[in-house]
Amino acid sequence: MRTPEFPPTVADVVTELERRYPPAWAQEWDRVGLVLGDPNAPVRRVLCVVDAVPETVAEAIEARADLIVAHHPLFLRGVSSVAPTTYKGRIVHQLIKADVALYVAHTNADVAEPGVSDALAARFGLTGLLPLAPPAVGAPAHGAGRGIGRIGKLPEPMTLAELTRHAAAVLPATAWGVRAAGDPRRTVRTLAVSGGSGDGFLAAATTAGVDAYLTADLRHHPTSEHLATGGPALLDAAHWATERPWLDDLAVVLRETTGVETLVSDLETDPWTVHAAPPAADDKEPDCEG
Ligand SMILES: [Zn+2]
């Protein structure tokens, strides 16, 4: 642990992050690690975010953070320019000008134990946690408890309709809210959760034999087919809301291992900003309700 006079460097913080979330555990297509910033620069304050976007970059600069730790990669594919005339180039310029480093822990934080979906599972009080999709034997991330998503038991059984309302209450609030697919009266005792876009794990949720599976970014056809073939009920939450809970754990890891001051961004970076439900049948004359 360093003192305020001798703060850790970016390299020191990266070392601790990679002890918990080894880059080798990331999926092959993923791009994790230090995106920009001088490894020798001192770090006193870190902002934890899901997305490094102009709004959270402004938040970091305003808070005088020295480092942003983000969940989503800024660059996933090759680029030939970081000119400030481009969306991402502008972010790069702002960060470098303000001397703010940027680090990404993505699928390596998803598979870690505890990882992104443990924080999500904790919001539901799930017990007896097991990974939804464990890494293959021989894969770098293979190990006890590790894998994408978690399955566990709810403290009390509830119907799908109740669970959907419960999910909207325990997850960070978003305009998107939570929607569910399946019989609203279905009893849910066991739940699978996966932070982020989890429709690649629909088959794993079926194999796991859970009553319901909560993730984000679910689509019409895979959802319909999944339900038609007897899969668990599905809950579709906002992507940001499923990953935001992990930031609190990340902040604890950073504080405990490096002594830095941590801030967690609550700026909702989910792109959906408006949600409308059709008026209920008994709700057609709102003016009469006073
Ligand atoms: Zn994500």
UniProtKB/TrEMBL annotation:
Gene Ontology molecular function: any one: metal ion binding
Cellular component per GO, a single term: cytoplasm
Binding site for a divalent metal cation: H71, H72, D110, H239, E243
NADP among keywords: no
This protein's UniProt keywords: Metal-binding
InterPro entries assigned: DUF34/NIF3, DUF34/NIF3_sf
Coiled coil: none
Record's keyword annotation contains Metal-binding: yes
Gene3D superfamilies documented for this protein: NIF3 (NGG1p interacting factor 3)-like (3.40.1390.30)
Quaternary assembly: Homohexamer.
Family from the record: Belongs to the GTP cyclohydrolase I type 2/NIF3 family.
PANTHER family: GTP CYCLOHYDROLASE 1 TYPE 2 HOMOLOG, NGG1 INTERACTING FACTOR 3
Protein name, UniProt field: GTP cyclohydrolase 1 type 2 homolog
Organism name: Salinispora tropica (strain ATCC BAA-916 / DSM 44818 / JCM 13857 / NBRC 105044 / CNB-440)
